[in-house]
Amino acid sequence: MPSQFSGLCIGASALFAYQASINTTANNIANVQTEGYSRQETELGATAPLRVYAKYGSTGTGVEAVSIKQVRDVYYDKKYWENNSSLGYFEQKLYYLGQVENVFADDGVQEGFSTIFSKMFNGLDTLNGGNASDKSVRNQFIFQAQNLCTYFNSVADALRETQKDCNEEIASTVQNINSIVEKIALINKEINMLETRGGYANELRDERSLLLDELSGIVSVSTSEYEIRNTYGENLGGTNFVVHINGQLVVDGNDYRQLECISAETKNHQTDAEGLYDIYWTDTKTMFSATSGVAGGTLKALFDLRDGNNNESMRGSVKEVHKNDKGEYDAITLEYPSNADINALNIPAEGTVKVNNREMKYTSWEAVLNEKGEIETIKFFLEDTIPTADANVMPGRVIDVGERVDSMGIPYYQQQANEFLRNFTEMFNDIQKTGVTLDGEPMGSFFVAETATGVLFEFDGWEKDADKDENGDPIRLISSTSDGYHQMTAFNAKVNYTSIKNPSYFSTTVDITNGADAYDLLDDMMALQADVTMFRGANAESFLETLLSDISVDTEKNTVFYKNYFNVSTVIENQRMSVFGVDEDEEALNLVKFQNAYNLSSKVISVMSEIYNKLINETGVT
């Protein structure tokens, strides 16, 4: 039969169990405003029954607090992380798109392209009607023309600074990722140290989830957790928690991997800033994929803004892999270029080409032009030789120059400015070269390009190759160093120094004998303002509208996505909070409920005490 004191033990067990429940409720109330805290519950369970030799067979022995666990739903956590990655991506893009839009602003407060361009042609128009020989009027126009070049110089500088800002933020973001994954691995170790001895590391798990919330805004995050078992399949008490970012393993239990930023040796685009970072794993020295199909978060947005070229980098087919005098393959020729327009050319003087996933660095290039002045082939001179086995399978394969990034980022807008400038200045210079100066001398290029190192390009003609084509005509070439409009960028455009110094060096007529005030070329030059198709099917004065349209459409698209993901985030967060958030009203009810249960358990102790008193002190034979 059970002990006479078993009732007292049962009441005592209830006191301990409900005291634990009250303490858990108090902890929930205390942490109602704690970020990342998950509501905890005390799980109660009946203690093992006592086998007795009586008709009823066994009797209960009370209650115990089996565990105190956090209330959390992994499903909602994963949904939140997936959505947070997309939300972070579009939020970051919108921030930098706003900066790009400000660069091209022309709103009365900031004088932009339309205002400056209009002033330049107003100055040109004043040369009509007998003013063509007036040097003060000429100076006014030349000043306005230089203002246009200065405007593009400043736009290029501002875009490059934005690109550098993205680059520096990439570096700081990588440091943040490293810090977070290191903390997660340390927490994994601490969790296992506690849980292998029994119990649950609720606060540590909350801390880990909060870190994953932060990480999911930076990169795409996926997690898994499984029990650690021995070779016999027995549970050893701990778990192994694994984290992948952008589909790549970064945390495996107590172990973690780190990332590092390494400056690229070559540029991806002609006008890129120097030393843009690539991200590599420190353990394997392989490149981390920040922009793959599964990637997301602010890190991908930074790369898309820094490197985005709208998939407009040069692509073609391998025509030939060339041998040198030593029989080594050290050059490769591209044919069927994706863009044959010289003025749209955006390949750097030194860069990389990729064939069959093999990336090769080139030190210079040379392009052959057809009779229309379009690019037919481009030959790249490689830094290292190609193994014969690889060279033999390359002809006919796709060749990419640089990286194609499907986003309208800084390189895209830089290239749009470059292409417009090249088209406009080439047409303007062509008109100028048909005329003569006030001194009766043949006019050269009015707009020129001068690099930061002082190299001047005046666009005097194509290089001639010693070889002949099938018609016996010299092959026309351009190269990474030749004097062509592909060398002009928004960074280096300027008015010829001779014209700035001497306003006579500007042509308004094809024949000075027509008079110093002759202006027969002005109509052709004035037509360039609005009457000639020049840029993406529109005229020159529509350049800003065309570019702002790109920015506006891209911004609107990203705004729509951002709002959608923000709304979804709000819904998911509400669902998460309904599961693990602390509800003050619910905790108040629990407090009263457990208090009543505690009081009843105390009553059991009192009743049992009276029974034992009666049994021990008042029962007996006198």
How would you characterize this protein structure?
By secondary structure, the chain is an alpha+beta fold. It is built from 12 helices and 21 strands. It has helices at about 5-30, 75-105, 115-125, 135-195, 200-215, 295-305, 390, 410-430, 495-500, 520-530, 545-580, 585-615; strands at about 40-45, 50, 60, 65-70, 220-230, 235-245, 250, 255, 260-265, 275-280, 315-325, 330-335, 350-355, 360-370, 375-385, 400, 445-450, 455, 465-470, 475-480, 495. A 6-stranded antiparallel β-barrel has the order 11-12-15-14-13-16. The longest helix is centred in the N-terminal third of the chain and has 61 residues, at about 135-195. The protein is elongated and about 150 Å long.
Summed up, what is this model?
The chain has helices at 6-30, 74-103, 113-125, 135-195, 202-216, 297-307, 388-392, 410-432, 497-501, 522-530, 543-580, 584-617; strands spanning 40-46, 50-51, 58-59, 63-70, 221-229, 235-245, 248-252, 255-256, 259-263, 277-281, 315-323, 329-335, 351-355, 358-369, 375-386, 398-401, 447-450, 456-457, 463-468, 474-479, 493-495. It has 622 residues and is α+β, with helices and mostly antiparallel strands.
